[in-house]
């Protein structure tokens, strides 16, 4: 019974990719892209200044994280792509696992017949796991994630702390 439960969990992965969900995800991405601030505003060096105290840093970070959120998501995405490109083994393992899961799901629960034998989906997932885990450890995903977290925090945090609020918002707060 447990074998059939695990098979159904993996076999239903392709069922989760329905058209309505893809449309809603696309609309969500489109909405985020629509919130991108122009580069002239994001890289406005006239608004960069040293904060006077920690309260001002908190105020700026709180405002800028909401105001430039789409730009910060783009920066983290670009850093993620850079991290994958520079760690080729991690990129290979990621593509290998995604391709393996896709290929096994394409079987629709049928057995794979090769000249070496017949394999059911449970055996294929186990084989994929046996190959992917050691390769995953060699690819050092934890150090890549730590680099990504650190570099994202430095880029986003320094921009959010050093960028002053637009002058319009300062006047809105006083009223």
From TrEMBL:
UniProt cross-references to InterPro entries, sorted A to Z: Prenylated_rab_accept_PRA1
N-terminal signal peptide: none
Family note: Belongs to the PRA1 family.
One cellular component term from this protein's GO annotations in UniProt: Golgi apparatus
Membrane topology per record: Multi-pass membrane protein
Transmembrane segments: 72-104, 124-149
Protein name (database record): PRA1 family protein
Alphabetized UniProt keyword annotations: Membrane, Transmembrane, Transmembrane helix
Cellular compartment(s): Membrane
């Amino acid at each position: 019974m447990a074998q059939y439960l695990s098979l159904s969990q993996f076999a239903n992965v392709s069922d989760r990719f329905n058209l309505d969900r893809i449309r809603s995800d696309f609309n969500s991405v489109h909405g985020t892209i629509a919130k991108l601030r122009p580069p002239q505003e994001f890289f406005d060096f006239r608004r960069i200044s040293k904060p006077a105290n920690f309260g001002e840093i908190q105020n700026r970070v709180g405002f800028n994280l909401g105001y430039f959120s789409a730009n910060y998501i783009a920066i983290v995405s670009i850093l993620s792509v850079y991290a994958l490109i520079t760690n080729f083994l991690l990129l290979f393992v990621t593509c290998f696992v995604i391709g393996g899961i896709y290929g096994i799901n394409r079987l629709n629960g049928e057995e794979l017949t090769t000249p070496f034998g017949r394999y059911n989906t449970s055996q294929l997932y186990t084989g994929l796991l046996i190959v992917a885990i050691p390769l995953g450890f060699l690819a050092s995903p934890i150090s890549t994630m730590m680099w990504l977290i650190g570099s994202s925090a430095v880029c986003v945090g320094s921009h959010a702390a050093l960028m002053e609020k637009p002058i319009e918002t300062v006047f809105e707060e006083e009223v």
